[in-house]
Design a protein that fits this description.
By secondary structure, the protein is of the alpha+beta class. The chain is built from 20 helices and 26 strands. Strands 6-5-4-9-8-7 form a six-stranded antiparallel β-sheet. Strands 11-10-15-14-13-12 form a six-stranded antiparallel β-sheet. Helix 4 runs antiparallel to helix 5.
Length: about 800
C-alpha cells in the first residue's frame, strides 16, 4: 500500500517583508519581535496575518521607518540619528506611536533639539502672505483687540462651548497679526500667542477670494505636507487635528479663526463644522460690536452681497439686539439644557450663562446649583401660549428642519418662529429656533461647509442626557402684538381708494427681527419682499385690505386665514410660513373718510428660483428633460398628498403657485407649493359647497357649472395637477389665447389639453394616468397617494431616480393639533 508523503507544518519564515508608506523593507523576524522590539506595535503586526502577497503593510512614513529599523538592528551604541531637528522630533513621535519607549526617550534626552544648530533648511516657513494683507491688518488694528484682556471675556463662553460639544481639549479665538497669532480666548492652552510662521490659522486666510471662504480641516497634521514639519505638530501642543472657521468681518476681510484642536487624528462630522461656523459668526459679531457703523444716508441699492459690504454690515447690526442661546432640545420634557447665551440674553432675563468646557453627567447632578450643573432654557422663558403641548409642537417644528428633505438639505433653511415670554420683567419675545448645524444667517452661510447637504447624521448626545438635538434660539423683544384677530368684513360695494405711490425704499416691518431689503413681486394681492429674519433669508408677503370707516378694528377674513393656515403646516414641498402679524396704515384725510387700510404680514421661506410657470418655456417630453418633468409632478403630488391627508384642499393649484428653490439635487431645484388664500378645511363631509373659484384654466368641470353653488372636493387639486403636468411637459400655457368664458365652454364640452409624444417605454401608462387626472367625474380621478406611487415607479423604470432621494420612511412633518376653521 502506498502512503501519502508527509506534509510538513507551515511555520513562519525567518525573514519578514514589509511595505511601509510605499517603500519595501526586508529584515529578520527576530529584529521586529524580540529585544528592543518586544511588546511593540511592530511585534504585534508581524504576529498577525500578512497580505495576500506575503507582505506586511504599515501605513507610516517609509523614510522615518528606516531610522527605526536601523535602531532595532544596531542598538543605541551604533545608531545614527537624523540630522535635522524636525526629523529628530518626527522620529520621537514615530517611536511613541510604535511603542518603542527607549528610542523615544533617547530622542528627547540625548538628542534634544537645542543641542544642535538649526539648519537653514529646517526653518518652517508657514502660510504665504495673502494679497490683501495691508487691508486685513488695517481692519484688525482698527478693532483694537490684539494684546488686550483675554481671560474671563465674553469670547470664553464660545471657546468653552465649542470644546465641550466637539469634545476637543483646545479651542481658540486666534487673531493673525503681522508677525504672530494672538489668542483673544483660549480654552485648554496656556500660551497667549505663537509665531505667525507656526500658525495653522494663517491658512484660513487663503485663498483671498471672498467666495472661497471655507472651514479649514486637517484630520492628521503629521500626514499633511503643509504642517508635518510645523513646530506645533512636532512639539507642544502636538497638534494632529485642526478645524478652523475663518473670522469674516463686515467688509469681507478675514482676520483669524475660531479653531478646535486635538492631539489625536479626527474626522469631524459636517454637523460639528456647521456649529463651528455659527460660533465663528457670533465671534465676529463680538469683535466688531463697538466699531461697526453704517452710513444711514446710503440706500445700499444694487446686487445683494453677503460676503462683504453694506448688506453684510446691516445684518450684523441687526444681530446686536438679538438674544442668542444654544439649547439641547428634546420632545419629552421641559428640561432643555442651556449651555450658551450672549449678553442680550442676560439683559432680558438677568441670567448669566457660563458654558462648561466639558459636559457634566446630568444623571449625577442631584440639585440645581450643584457644581457643574447646567441651567434649563425653560427656567427663564415660557411659551406665550399656556398650552403645555406647545413644547412638543415646537419640537416638531425644529425636527422638520433636522431631517434632510428628499434630494438633500437646504443650507439656508431657516428654523421656525414662536412667541416666548421672559419670566423676568414679563418681556414678550419672538424667537427663531434652528438646528445648530444650519447657518444662523446669510452672513454665516458665507463660510462653506462641504458635506452638510446630504448629511443625515444625528448629534451624539452627551453622557447621561436624553435624546435630543442642539438648537440655536435667536430672540428679540417684541413691542407690539403680532397677530390680528380673525374678524370678517362684509363689504357691500367696492371702495375707491387712491393707489399708493410705489416707493423704491422698502417699508419698515412690524416685527423687530425682520428687515425688508427689496421688492421682488407686486400685484393686486399685495407685495412680496426679499427680507432678513434674524439674518436668515426669507420672503415677506404684505397683503393690504381696505376696511370701511367705522370698522377700523376689523380685517378681511381671507388674508388672515391664509396666514393662520400656512403657519400650521410643514412639508419639504410646501413653502413654509414662519410667522405672521398685521397693523393699520394711516391714510390722508380724504381717504380716511372713506376707509382705512389694514396690512397682513406673512414671513415665509425664500424661494430663489421664481415660479414654475416662468420655468415652463421649453418642452420636456424627451429623454432627460422628461425625467425632470416627472420629478416636478412627483414633488407637487407629495405636497398635495400631505394636504389631503390632514384634511385640506388647496383650491387654486397652478404653476404660478408653485415656487422653485435651489437645492443640491439632480435638477438643481425643488418645487414648493404656496398660496393658501383659497384653501378649504374639510369637516366630516368629503366636499364643500362654494361659489368661490380659483384660476379658471385649472378648475375641473364640476366647479364650472351654471349652478350658483358648486361642490368642491380634493379631486379638484388632482385635476389641477393634470393641467400643470401638461404645462410642464409641453412648455405651453393651457387654453392659450382663450378668455375665461371660452375656457368654461371648452371644458364643459369635454375638451382637455393633450400631450405630445413622450418616451415610448412608458407612453401608454403615463398617458392613461394623465387623462384620468382630467376626468369629468371626480370619482374617476386618482388620489395624490396613487399618483405618488405610480410616478415614482415610472421614474425608477426610466432610471431617473439616481441621485433623487425617495424617503423610505415617513418624515416628521409639522402639523397643528387641529386645522383652523374657515
Amino acid at each position: 500500500m502506498a502512503c501519502c508523503p508527509c506534509v510538513p507544518s507551515k511555520t513562519p519564515s525567518n525573514r519578514v517583508h514589509l511595505d511601509v508608506g510605499g517603500q519595501r523593507f526586508t529584515t529578520a523576524r527576530v529584529t521586529l519581535t524580540a529585544g528592543r522590539a518586544a511588546g511593540s506595535k511592530l511585534a504585534e503586526l508581524v504576529a498577525g496575518t500578512p497580505e495576500a502577497d506575503g507582505v506586511y503593510f504599515l501605513d507610516r512614513d517609509g523614510e522615518m521607518f528606516l531610522h527605526v529599523l536601523n535602531y532595532l538592528r544596531h542598538g543605541p551604541e551604533l545608531f545614527v540619528p537624523p540630522e535635522s531637528n524636525s526629523s529628530r522630533l518626527s522620529l520621537r513621535n514615530e517611536a511613541k506611536m510604535l511603542q518603542l519607549p527607549e528610542l523615544a526617550r533617547m530622542m528627547e534626552e540625548e538628542y534634544a533639539p537645542h543641542q544642535y544648530a538649526v539648519f537653514e533648511s529646517d526653518v518652517y516657513q508657514g502660510a504665504p502672505i495673502p494679497r490683501n494683507e495691508k487691508e486685513r491688518i488695517a481692519k484688525l488694528r482698527s478693532l483694537e483687540v490684539v494684546d488686550t484682556e483675554n481671560v474671563n471675556t465674553d469670547f470664553d463662553n464660545i471657546t468653552r462651548c465649542v470644546a465641550a460639544i466637539l469634545q476637543v481639549p483646545i479651542c481658540l479665538v486666534s487673531l493673525v497679526a503681522e508677525d504672530k497669532q494672538w489668542f483673544k480666548s483660549k480654552t485648554g492652552l496656556e500660551a497667549d500667542e505663537t509665531s505667525r510662521a507656526s500658525s495653522f490659522c494663517a491658512y484660513t486666510l487663503l485663498p483671498e477670494a471672498l467666495e472661497d471662504s471655507a472651514v479649514l480641516v486637517v484630520t492628521d497634521a503629521r500626514r499633511d505636507v503643509r504642517f508635518m514639519r510645523n513646530p506645533l505638530v512636532l512639539g507642544e501642543p502636538y497638534i494632529q487635528f485642526y478645524a478652523g472657521c475663518p473670522l469674516v468681518t463686515s467688509e469681507g476681510l478675514r482676520i483669524g479663526s475660531l479653531c478646535a484642536i486635538d492631539r489625536v487624528p479626527r474626522h469631524p462630522a459636517p454637523s460639528e463644522l456647521g456649529l463651528l461656523i455659527n460660533f465663528g459668526y457670533l465671534t465676529v459679531q463680538l469683535l466688531e460690536e463697538r466699531h461697526l457703523k453704517l452710513d444711514e444716508e446710503s440706500e445700499g441699492e444694487g446686487e445683494l452681497q453677503w460676503r462683504g459690504g453694506r448688506q453684510r454690515a446691516e445684518a450684523m447690526v441687526d444681530g446686536r439686539k438679538m438674544a442668542v442661546a444654544l439649547v439641547w432640545a428634546r420632545p419629552d420634557s421641559m428640561d432643555w439644557p442651556l449651555i450658551y447665551a450672549n449678553k442680550v440674553w442676560t439683559q432680558l432675563t438677568g441670567v448669566t450663562v457660563v458654558s462648561p468646557c466639558k459636559f457634566p453627567d446630568r444623571a449625577e447632578i442631584s440639585a440645581p446649583g450643584a457644581a457643574g450643573s447646567v441651567e434649563s432654557f425653560w427656567d427663564h422663558v415660557r411659551m406665550a401660549s399656556a398650552d403645555p403641548g406647545q413644547v412638543l409642537e415646537l419640537w416638531k417644528m425644529v425636527s422638520a428642519a433636522m431631517a434632510p428633505p428628499p434630494g438633500g438639505r437646504d443650507l439656508r433653511q431657516v428654523g421656525f418662529g414662536t412667541s416666548l415670554q421672559a419670566k423676568r420683567g414679563k418681556a414678550r419675545l419672538t424667537a427663531r429656533f434652528s438646528p445648530a448645524e444650519l447657518p444662523l444667517s446669510e452672513n454665516a452661510a458665507v463660510v462653506k461647509n462641504h458635506g452638510l447637504e446630504a448629511s443625515r447624521e444625528r448629534w451624539q448626545r452627551p453622557k447621561g442626557w436624553a435624546d435630543g438635538h442642539w438648537c440655536f434660539v435667536q430672540m428679540v423683544q417684541q413691542k407690539e402684538p403680532e397677530k390680528l384677530p380673525p374678524i370678517v368684513v362684509k363689504q357691500e360695494e367696492p371702495l375707491k381708494v387712491k393707489e399708493e405711490t410705489v416707493s423704491m425704499k422698502p417699508p419698515t416691518a412690524p416685527f423687530e427681527d425682520v428687515r425688508l431689503l427689496r421688492l421682488v413681486g407686486q400685484g393686486s394681492f399685495g407685495s412680496v419682499y426679499f427680507s432678513l429674519w434674524s439674518g436668515a433669508a426669507v420672503a415677506v408677503k404684505v397683503i393690504k385690505t381696505v376696511v370701511p370707516t367705522g370698522k377700523s378694528e376689523e380685517v378681511a377674513k381671507t388674508p388672515h386665514f391664509e396666514a393662520l393656515l400656512s403657519v400650521t403646516i410643514s412639508h419639504p414641498n410646501l413653502v413654509q410660513t414662519f410667522k405672521h402679524g398685521g397693523r393699520v396704515i394711516e391714510m390722508n384725510s380724504e381717504e380716511k373718510a372713506v376707509a382705512s387700510m389694514h396690512e397682513t404680514w406673512i414671513v415665509q421661506e425664500w424661494c430663489d428660483g421664481g415660479t414654475l410657470r416662468a420655468n415652463c418655456k421649453m418642452p420636456r417630453n424627451e429623454d432627460v428633460a422628461f425625467l425632470e418633468a416627472m420629478q416636478i409632478c412627483i414633488e407637487i403630488s407629495r405636497a398635495g398628498q400631505y394636504l389631503h391627508d390632514i384634511g385640506l384642499i388647496h383650491g387654486d393649484l397652478t404653476a404660478n403657485n408653485v415656487l422653485l428653490k435651489s437645492m443640491p439635487v439632480a435638477k438643481g431645484y425643488v418645487c414648493k407649493v404656496c398660496d393658501f388664500g383659497l384653501a378649504r378645511v374639510l369637516g366630516e363631509s368629503k366636499d364643500i359647497i362654494t361659489n368661490t373659484l380659483g384660476t379658471v384654466t385649472h378648475m375641473p368641470p364640476e366647479l364650472l357649472s351654471v349652478s350658483e353653488k358648486c361642490s368642491l372636493t380634493q379631486k379638484a387639486d388632482v385635476y389641477a395637477l393634470g393641467i400643470i403636468a401638461y404645462q410642464v411637459i409641453t412648455g405651453q400655457q393651457p387654453f392659450a389665447g382663450m378668455s375665461p368664458p371660452q375656457v368654461v365652454i371648452q371644458v364643459a364640452r369635454g375638451r382637455r389639453p393633450s400631450l405630445p409624444p413622450i418616451p415610448a417605454a412608458i407612453e401608454q401608462r403615463f398617458t392613461e394616468v394623465f387623462k384620468s387626472t382630467l376626468s369629468a367625474k371626480p370619482q374617476d380621478r386618482p388620489s395624490f397617494n396613487d399618483l405618488v406611487k405610480f410616478l415614482t415607479g415610472l421614474l425608477h423604470d426610466l432610471g431617473g431616480d439616481e441621485g433623487y432621494i425617495v424617503p423610505s420612511e415617513p418624515q416628521l412633518y409639522r402639523q397643528s393639533g387641529s386645522a383652523p376653521s374657515g
